[in-house]
Amino acid sequence: MKRIIILGYMGAGKTTVGKALAEDLKCQFYDLDWYIESRMRKTVKQLFDERGEAGFRKIEHNMLHEVAEFDNIILSCGGGTPCFFDNMDYLNQQGETVYLKATPDILHKHLKMGKSVRPLLLNKTPEEIQLFIQQQLTEREPSYLKAKYILDVNLMDNYEKIKITVDQLEKMIGIEPRR
Fold this sequence. Notes:
Elements: E1 3-7, H1 14-25, E2 28-31, H2 32-40, H3 44-67, E3 73-76, H4 87-94, E4 96-101, H5 104-113, H6 126-144, E5 149-152, H7 159-173
Parallel strand pairs: 1-3, 1-4, 2-3, 4-5
């Protein structure tokens, strides 16, 4: 096993699944946003505020090309990562890409429960967030669907279901857990 790269919209559970998968497979987990924050010494929100989305996406692209070269990792990408530059083609060359697919309603529910700051959702009403998710998912899904594997995560709402999802992912990719 070299690299498993997890993609999907914000709130799909990329970090949750990625951490559980890394623990199962006894390998290192990287969240691209966290990697960017540690390298740049600024939050994603600060980078968005200072450089705008275009500036952030350039940083993200460069950092992706660093971390996606590491061996034996699980990498969780930001929701927009596959949709810019040649990132999706690059990711498919670097490892096993998995799209965590969820409906806009499930994504909205997960984002409401989440505690992290989502720069693209700031200052939006719940109705505006719902519409934004639907519109952006429609734009981004063609990139996500280029992933080598697609895993439905609509029912991933407790620890046991997360475990089932990770087991499904391992079977899908054809790897044995090292438990």
